[in-house]
């Protein structure tokens, strides 16, 4: 396996139509585990026309989700004390019509840890979580429910990490820095998704698996152009939901920063009494 770290080189591979993702196919659907079937049904682990078709359906689902409404729901949850890391999945699940949305982040976390490679230390738990999420989607069509669950799984760790890092940066900086600037700094300097993988054509035929770092140095950066940001990927498989992700993340970070400011203000008042 080869690591590619420099951002321009990573971007070239991500936009190259000859690079493919390692596939998650399933030979015998009836005897395969629910996790294996789920990975074979999502957009993330297929190539070519099948990827394009699934991507169109994901885009249609995302078009039906209003980022402002997601942000408003995220504010409500943050004010109600829902832990920040659970809010993105909860608001997406509510908007997509899942049942018992607030109980789903735990199940999504279990699936998300096995999702990138299909490897897990607890296959039974991962399978049970996939089955429960399919049920909660309220859909019976296998492709439809897999793509809906995929949206939750893809959003889970990436959005929670973006929020966590922006809040940590806020604590280490002057309070006047805007939430948008904090989020942009994390996306530029500390990508929440650190790596992805591709198969690229090898010189002597066949394909080589490469690990692409999304947070490496931008050696070709120039003063006359903005820094290359790969946090949402690039090319035809880039994240389809950056607006949704940023709306949710900004709402949570804004609300929790305002809360922290109010707490500080209260402490200051108490001290001066
Ligand atoms: C509302 C939240 C989010 C949703 C619903 C979402 C959804 C998705 C989906 C469905 C894909 C697969 C696209 C495909 O197969 O063509 C994807 C890819 C990706 N997402 Fe997101 N995402 C979210 C948040 C984020 C965040 C916060 C980040 C990082 C800052 C992120 C980074 C990525 C990256 C890097 C990829 C591409 C991976 C690759 O090229 O292999 N996503 N996302």
From TrEMBL:
It comes from the Bacteria. One of its GO terms (molecular function) is heme binding. This is Cytochrome P450.
